[in-house]
Amino acid sequence: MPDRWRFVLITMAALIGVAVTLSLGRWQLQRATYKQELFDAVQRQQGLPPWGNADVAAVRPQAAPIAEATPWLHRPVQLKGHWIQGQTLYLDNRQMQGQPGFFVLTPLRLAAPHDDVVIAVQRGWVPRNFLDRTALPAVQTPEGLVTVEGRMEAAPSRLYEFGRAGADPDGQQSRIRQNVDIAEWALASGLPLRAWSLLQTGEAGEGLRRDWPVATAGVEKHHGYAFQWFGLAALITLLYVWFQIVRRFVRPRHVRS
Asked: What is the pLDDT of residues 33-47, one digit of tens each?
C-alpha cells in the first residue's frame, strides 16, 4: 500500500476513534446528569410535608405503570387506619444489612370516611428460619386504630423466579411468596388494593427492622466511565500526533538539518 494511502487510512481511523470515544464520554456525563436530577427530585419529594388520609385517598388508582415522574411517588405520609388481620404476606429472599430474610407486607384499610381505600404496606424485614423454610417469624399486627408513617412507593421490586410455581410452592396456601403482584393479590383477597405501596419508616418495632437502604445518585460510576472514555480519546490523539506527525514530518526535517 502506498505510504500516502496508509497515512490517510490511519488518519481516518484516528478521527473515528476520537469521535466515538468523545461521544461515549459525553453520553456517560448525560447519564450522570439524568440520575442526579432524579435523585434531587426524590430528595425534594421526601422533604415535603406528609400527606394524611384525605390526600392519599384523592390519589387515583394507577392504570399505567408507575413512573419516576409520578407526582406523589416518594411522598411522606402519616396515615390512620386498621391492619387487615390474616392477610400478611412474606416476600422471601430479601436482604437487610446483608442478612437474608423476609419483607413483611400487610394491607392497611384507611380510617373512615376513607375506609374504601386499602394500601399494601411494606412494614419491615424479619430474619428467616434456616432450619424450617416454611416457618413464619413472629410479627405483631396490632388491632384497632393505628398510625403508620412512611412514604408512597411503587410495588415491591420483583426477583427472578423459575415459573409461577416458584412464587408459591404451596399453591396459594402459604403466606411466603417470592414476588407479589398487587393486582393479583387484590383479586385473590377481594380487597380494593391500590396499585402502589407504602414503605413504612421509623424505629424498629412489632418484631420488624426498618433499616431500608438509602438511595444515592450513583453518578460517580458514570463520571469514572466518562473519564476513561475521554482518556482514551486523548491517548488516541497523542499516539496519532507522535507517530503520524512528529515522527513522520517534524523529526525527518530536524535530522536533515
From this structure: 999 988 898 888 888
Burial of 139 (0-12, 13-18, 19+ CB in 10 A): middle
Q: What's the whole-number average pLDDT of the chain? A: 85
Least confident of 26-30, 204-208, 220-224: 204-208
Residue-wise pLDDT tens digits, 52-91 = 999 999 887 654 456 655 778 889 999 999 999 889 999 9
What is the rounded distance in angstroms from the CA atom of residue 118 to the CA atom of residue 186? 10
